[in-house]
Design a protein that fits this description.
Blueprint (H helix, E strand, L loop, with lengths): L10 H33 L3 H14 L3 H20 L6 H29 L5 H40 L5
Helix pairs in contact: 1-3, 1-5, 2-5, 3-4, 4-5
Amino acid sequence: MTANSGTGPRTGAGVVLGAATVATGLVAGVFYIFACAVMPALRRSGDRVFVEVMRNINDVIQNPVFFLSFLGALVLTAVSAWQLRHTAAARWARAGLAAYALAFLVTVAFNVPLNDALAATGTPAALRDHFEDPWVAWNTVRALLSTAATACLTRALLLYGRSHRSPA
């Protein structure tokens, strides 16, 4: 087995990079759909409906499938960046890690606390007024960051694939 044959110990790095790319893309897609469909649709709703639907979304999104992608993207990207550290794909994997880590931090530092505040008691109008605009703004930031991370990881995957092509 040679390093360029696509088999052997280095293949694991390609599998991890591929899984990181897919997981990051899935999370980017979640944030994207909120930005371009869910939140614009909810904007048309009254305060009570808006708060009720967002509370329901916040409850159901906390599930193993979403957490596997959301946390898995971070872990897999970090592992991949380390595995690729001596390759041509390394800087793209590190850039993807930096972008996704920032998206992850935005979620934890801004979106989750806003979700928690929305779960508090209060009038729907007051809850919505405190929640909607900042949540939408931070969601846009994390959508852009996770999309950039996906693009960086895709570039890393292409470079990795080129360097591990078997000779014709």
